Amino acid sequence: MHPIQEKLLALSKDNNLARISLREMAAAIGLPAESPQKIKHHLQQLEKKGFLTIDRAKGVMEKASLLPGLASGLLKEASALFSIPVIGTANCGPATLYAEQNFEGFLHVSGRLLGRASPAGLYAIKTNGSSMNRAELGGRKIEDGDYVVIDSNRREPADNDIVLAIIDNKATIKRFIDDRKNGQVILKADSSYDYEPIYLHPDDDFLINGKAVAVIKK
Questions:
Q1: What is the CATH number of the domain that holds 104?
Q2: Pick the catalytic residue: 7, 174, 188, 211?
Q3: What is the pLDDT of residues 60-82, one digit of tens each?
Q4: What is the CATH number of the domain that holds 60?
Q5: Residue 13: active-site member
Q6: Mean pLDDT by 10 residues, the chain (218 residues)
Q7: Do residue 56 and residue 104 come from a single domain?
Q8: Is 131 a catalytic residue?
Q9: Residue ending a domain, choose from 29, 52, 78
Q10: Of the listed 7, 12, 126, 131, which one is catalytic?
Q11: Are residues 108 and 13 located together in one domain of the fold?
Q12: Which of 10, 38, 100, 144 is 20 to 30 A off residue 193, Cα-Cα?
């Protein structure tokens, strides 16, 4: 806890903070030169953590015990966590690893990291190889050993999307290039190394098993 929050919490033991001005609070905790806005910010943090509830309009302050306050904060954090299944490894080079959906556990990720309100349709794949080490998702590069989060509900990729493709029952992460005007689609590496692209006919037996939407660094 921030030192100012500790002092405000101590002050609340003997004072109803709802009846004290922000400047008076600053003076009471030994920081008379501190800005009212900073005091207000730390009060809001105490309320967010569940230690205090202050209603200035009614002149009422409610204090929570330490344990319930911490428990409330933990519950709020926990509610924002997604449990995303990890179902195997995909190659970032040639398609040489089998894409069998072998459950390997869960990746516990904040929804804020993914920019999602729900984990519906999401699963994670651990990467193997460096053929996508120049590709970025959300400002994070896809490097060997990272987890790539796949949205299985998005199996109709747009040109230049990063996808998880299944070819001959083997998985690879590549950039999807829609070149059907020339009778082909291309799965292209995005790497500092020299990897050959994969050229496919649109009617070939391959599957786009979802669009890559996020990278969780190893």
A1: 2.10.109.10
A2: 174
A3: 776 654 444 444 444 444 447 88
A4: 1.10.10
A5: no
A6: 84 86 92 91 80 75 52 46 82 60 76 84 89 90 93 91 88 93 94 89 88 93
A7: no
A8: yes
A9: 78
A10: 131
A11: no
A12: 100
